[in-house]
Amino acid sequence: MGGRRSVQEGIRVAALQLRSGSDPVSNVDAAIELIRRAAGDGASYIQVPEYFNYLGPVENYSRVAESIPGPTTDRLAALAIELSVTVHIGSMLEPSREPEKFFNTSVLLDTSGHVLATYRKAHLFDIDVAGEVVFKESDAIAAGEKLVVAQCPGFALGMTICFDLRFPEMYRALARHGATVFAIPSAFNAATGRAHWEVLLRARAIENHAFVVAAAQVGTTVEGIATFGHSMIVGPWGDVLAHSNSDREDVLVATLDLDEVARRRSQIDVMNLRRPELYSSLDD
Fold it and tell me: Which residue from 46, 115, 188, 279 puts its CA 20 to 30 A from 79's CA?
């Protein structure tokens, strides 16, 4: 298990770390086992990583993509009802209207098993770092066109996925529309993760005085997809409440004091000290 540290009062949340591969059945089984562990540790909001039920070759996307609701969300909805928890499916493949393309979709299930919210990944992982990683997610994934702030019991959740992390203007918009917790389920690349993962997570928390919950994939699949792991939960002052150092599946749990968001935002009022009219002056 990774190290844990939590505050004493508030809402208990969990970030689950998975080693998903190309077998959807075993991936979902593994996620369910960890969700049960997190619920047993008192978590009422439980987040699993991006591509939780399939992390494998693109040529199989059409076989594993599902409608939402669908078989996988139905199975986890039943678990949410049984355990009386909010289950956040970090992401799964959803068919799109574009031929040969799919959405990378995050799904929030409430304690009644209903789909509370969905968010389709907006910023796609198209990068070329010579000698380290070359990938173009947009070859198979259609970009989402809408930001989402979902109302969970006790907090407002800004929904994002993985590569979105590099776009701070997105998080500022979510915070300005009420988000007090950012969800960043990820399958962050191992090469870029070593350099950027923790600093970006903490920056998004500090910039907006919001909590960050980031459930991550870890390890290398048999097809060679290498993910960084290091799932984290971060506080509004940038303090790391929980951090996995494991190279295996893991369960991180922390208790969020949501009053801290308002307290920190009142101390450094970045929302009201903004000067949006200035930021467009270079365009003029």
Answer: 188
